[in-house]
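hi support,

uploading two proteins for the ticket. first:
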Amino acid sequence: MGLDTKSRLIMEVLLRNPFITSKELVEDQQISKRQLTYLLSKINEYLKNERASKNIKK
């Protein structure tokens, strides 16, 4: 399972600027704090699954 477009965008922003605050992300992406929390949760779950699948393939 991959990430949706908005989740990928948030992840790219975080990779480019790891010190960005949640307030800045909310303002820059024009999303609510709740939406950001949900997107970050989806990104974390995706990364956990990717790591697990890489470990299994070894």
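and the second one:
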Amino acid sequence: MSLEELLDGQRNEMTDNVESTVLKVAELENEEKKKMKRITQILVLFSMVLMLISYILSNYLNQNDIIDFIYGFCNGVTFATLALILIVTGRWGLKIREFKERTTNRD
């Protein structure tokens, strides 16, 4: 076996290793994207339910202190949920995840 054949064999092995590594990284990124999409969907659904409750409370029930408290609570949590969605899906969410990985992976 010549040196050239030996080097070509090593290059082929390295190419195969690089390809498998790239595929694994892509698969992990897809899984993380699916997870983030699912979390976002749940938060949007939760926000919609709270908005519906808030609407019903403000338009169909007699107003008293308890109803006003629940109405205000639903509006506040809805606003906070929508703000959280913006943070999680934006670049701040990426920075938060990177910070979390750096702090939890210390040896």
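thanks. also noticed: The chain is about 90% helix and 0% strand.
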